[in-house]
Write a structure and sequence with these properties.
Blueprint (H helix, E strand, L loop, with lengths): L5 H9 L4 E4 L6 E4 L4 E6 L3 E5 L4 E4 L3 H38 L8 E3 L5 E4 L2
Antiparallel strand pairs: 1-2, 3-4, 4-5, 6-7
Helix pairs in contact: 1-2
Length: about 120
Amino acid sequence: MRAAPIQSHIRHEVETTVIQLTRLRHGDTFYLNPDLFERVDTHVDTVVRLTDGTEYLVSEPAELIIQRITEYRARIVAIAALLQANAVDDRLRADDFSSGDAQVPPGELLSANGQATGEAS
């Protein structure tokens, strides 16, 4: 079975590059880019402070916000790994085709030494 194109992975991840939070007073849902977080304070209420000084009172506990930030960063690392693997695969294929030695059909995985390892999942 062939893997979904890398573009669909990226499109999905772009839609999830923010984390969802809930305003404490109104209960409204809103989204913030965690790269802009300076800190999360928990006294009586949870306060998210951004790098520009903006503060948001939210209903989520600090532990949940940290978990969401960790998951967000893991998605970013996963995207980078997919992009890198795709770029290496494309370079290896281009080298094979340019030399006239095309041995790896589209959809096959390549090992580190450029040998076909089987069908991509």
